[in-house]
Design goal:
The protein is α/β, with parallel strands linked by helices. The protein folds into two domains: 226 residues, Spore Coat Polysaccharide Biosynthesis Protein SpsA, Chain A; 192 residues, UDP N-Acetylglucosamine Acyltransferase, domain 1 (3 Solenoid), CATH 2.160.10.10. It is built from eleven helices and 35 strands. Strands 13, 15, 16, 18, 19, 21, 22, 24, 26, 29 and 32 form an eleven-stranded parallel β-sheet that branches. The longest helix has 21 residues. The mean pLDDT is 97. The protein binds uridine-diphosphate-N-acetylglucosamine and calcium ion. Calcium ion binds next to loops.
C-alpha cells in the first residue's frame, strides 16, 4: 500500500460537516455562520485546514447553503460543495461527499463546522498516525464537562468504540475522555467503513462515530489521540458559543502578549480574528477591537476605546474613550483623545484631536491641532462631503466645518466658528458673531429679576 509515505507526501481531503439544523442554537441562521471573534465559525475551521496544508475540502451543507459556502471560501483551499438533503446524522452527512471521497485520497479527514477552535496541530498529528499505518484516528480530549459528547472507549491503547451520550451506560457516562468530532481515516478504506454504518441507536441516526466499531470489525487499526479541550470544544448552544469565544480570546491575547504586546488587564480586551498589534503596543483595560484593525509599534490604546477598520501608526495614542470607525488612519505620533470619533479620515503625523470631536470624511495634515468640540459637518442629509485641513493648522474649539470645505496649511479657525467657505493657507477665519459689551447691563437685569420675583412671592 502507498500508506508508508510521510504525512506531507500523502494526499488529503477534508470533509467539513456543516449541514446540521442547529436546533439547539435556536437561531434563524445555521450555527456555523455564528461569529467567533467577528468571523463565521466555519471560516475558522477552514483556516485550520489551510494551515494544515490540506489540498481540498468537501463542504457538506444543508440549511443556509449559499451563505455557508460563501463564508467557507478561501483563496488557498479549493472547496467542493455537497448537499445533504435529509438530516440523518453525521455518518450520513459524510456520505453526501461520496463523490469527493471516491477520488481516492490517501487521507480523509472529517471535521465539524461547529468546532471552530481547532488548529492545524491536531490535524497534522492525526495524519502522522495514518502515515504510520493506523486506519481510523479520532481526536479526543479530556474534560470536566463531558455532557453531550461521545465517550471514547479505550482498551490497551486501542480505541474500541465511541459511545454517544444518549446510548451510553452509567459507567460509560462517567468516562471523561471525549470525542472531539474530528476523525482521520485511511482514504482507501473510508467509504467501506462509512457505508457499513447503521442507524440502530437512540436517535435513529447514522453516527459517524460508529465508523470505529465498523472498522474494527473489518480488522482495521483504530486509535484515539489527545488534543487540548481548548481546541475541541463544540458549539451546540449560545451558552457554548460564549465559552468558545472566551477561549478564543484568551488564546489570542496570550499569543499577542508573547509576541511583545502589553495588556494591563488582558481579560477585558476583546480582539477580532484579524487584529494586528505590533511589538511594544500597550493596550489598557476595556478596549474592543472590531474587525480590520492594525496597530503599529509603540502605540498606546488607552482604556475604553473602540476601534474598527482602523490603522494606528507607530507611537500614536488613542483614547481613553475614543472611537475609531472604519477608514480611520492615524499617522505616526498622532493623538486622538477622549470622546472623539474618527471615521474615514486621515489624521496626519503628530496631529492632535484631543477632546469631544467628530472627524469624518476628512484629511487632517501633520501637526495640526483640532480644538475641543470640533465637528466636521460631513453629511447634508443626502450626500457625504469631504473636509480637507492642511498641515500645522489650528482649529479653535467648538467649530463646525461644513463640508465640502478646505482649510489651508498654517490656517487658523477662531473658536466657535461655523466655516462654510475655504480658508487659504496662513489665513485666520472668524465665522461667528462679533462680541458686544453692555457695561452694567448684567447688574441691571439681575436687580430687575429679583424685584419681579419678590413681587410675586406670597411671604411679606
Ligand atoms: C458529535 C459527535 C460526538 C462528539 C461531538 C463533538 C456524532 C454522532 N457525535 O455530536 O461524539 O463528541 O460531535 O463536538 O458524530 N451535521 C450535518 N448533518 C447531520 C448532522 C450533523 O452536517 O445530519 C453537522 C453539524 O452541522 C455539525 C456537525 O455535523 O457541524 C456535528 O453535528 P452535531 O449535531 O453538532 O453533533 P453532536 O451532537 O455535537
Ligand atoms: Ca456539535
Amino acid at each position: 500500500m502507498s500508506n508508508t509515505r510521510t504525512a506531507e507526501a500523502r494526499s488529503c481531503l477534508a470533509v467539513v460537516l456543516a449541514a446540521g439544523e442547529s436546533t439547539r442554537m435556536k437561531s434563524s441562521i445555521s450555527k456555523v455562520l455564528h461569529p467567533v471573534a467577528g468571523r463565521a465559525m466555519i471560516a475558522h475551521v477552514m483556516e485550520a485546514l489551510a494551515d494544515a496544508g490540506i489540498e481540498a475540502a468537501a463542504l457538506v451543507v444543508g440549511r443556509d447553503a449559499d451563505a455557508v459556502v460563501a463564508a467557507a471560501q478561501r483563496a488557498d483551499l479549493p472547496v467542493s460543495t455537497h448537499l445533504q438533503t435529509q438530516r440523518l446524522g453525521t455518518g450520513h452527512a459524510v456520505l453526501a461527499a461520496r463523490a469527493a471521497i471516491a477520488k481516492g485520497y490517501d487521507d480523509v479527514l472529517v471535521v465539524f463546522g461547529d468546532t471552530p477552535l481547532i488548529t492545524a496541530g491536531p490535524l497534522k498529528a492525526a495524519r502522522e498516525r495514518l502515515a504510520a499505518g493506523d486506519d481510523v484516528v479520532v481526536i479526543g480530549f479530556h474534560t470536566d464537562r463531558p455532557t453531550g459528547y461521545g465517550r471514547l472507549i479505550i482498551e490497551n491503547d486501542a480505541l474500541l468504540a465511541i459511545r454517544e451520550e444518549k446510548d451510553a451506560s452509567e459507567a460509560e457516562r462517567a468516562i471523561t475522555y471525549c470525542n472531539g468530532g474530528l476523525m482521520a481515516m485511511n482514504g482507501r478504506r473510508a467509504l467501506d467503513f462509512l457505508d457499513a454504518i447503521g442507524n440502530a441507536n437512540a436517535k435513529g441516526e447514522y453516527y459517524l462515530t460508529d465508523a470505529v466499531e465498523v472498522a474494527r470489525a473489518a480488522g482495521a487499526r483504530t486509535i484515539a489521540i489527545e488534543a487540548p479541550e481548548t481546541e475541541l470544544m463544540g458549539c451546540n448552544t449560545r451558552a457554548e458559543l460564549a465559552v468558545i469565544e472566551a477561549a478564543w480570546q484568551a488564546r489570542r491575547r496570550h499569543a499577542l502578549m508573547i509576541s511583545g504586546v502589553s495588556m494591563i488587564a488582558p481579560e477585558t480586551v476583546f480582539l477580532s480574528h484579524d487584529t494586528q498589534l505590533a511589538q511594544d503596543v500597550l493596550v489598557e483595560p476595556n478596549v474592543v477591537f472590531g474587525p480590520g484593525v492594525t496597530v503599529e509599534r509603540d502605540a498606546v490604546i488607552h482604556a475604553f476605546s473602540h476601534l474598527e477598520g482602523a490603522h494606528v501608526s507607530a507611537g500614536a495614542t488613542v483614547g481613553p474613550y475614543a472611537r475609531l470607525r472604519p477608514g480611520a488612519h492615524l499617522g505616526e505620533h498622532a493623538k486622538v483623545g477622549n470622546f472623539c470619533e474618527i471615521k474615514k479620515a486621515e489624521i496626519g503625523a503628530g496631529a492632535k484631536v484631543n477632546h469631544l470631536t467628530y472627524i469624518g470624511d476628512a484629511f487632517v495634515g501633520a501637526d495640526t491641532n483640532i480644538g475641543a468640540g470640533t465637528v466636521t459637518c460631513n453629511y447634508d442629509g443626502v450626500n457625504k462631503h469631504i473636509t480637507r485641513i492642511g498641515a500645522k493648522a489650528f482649529i479653535g474649539s467648538n467649530s463646525s466645518l461644513v463640508a465640502p470645505v478646505t482649510i489651508g496649511d498654517g490656517a487658523l479657525v477662531a473658536s466657535g466658528s461655523v466655516i462654510t467657505d475655504d480658508v487659504p493657507d496662513d489665513a485666520a477665519a472668524f465665522g461667528r458673531a462679533r462680541q458686544t459689551i453692555k457695561p452694567g447691563r448684567a447688574k441691571l437685569l439681575r436687580e430687575r429679576y429679583l424685584a419681579e420675583k419678590a413681587a410675586k412671592s406670597p411671604k411679606g
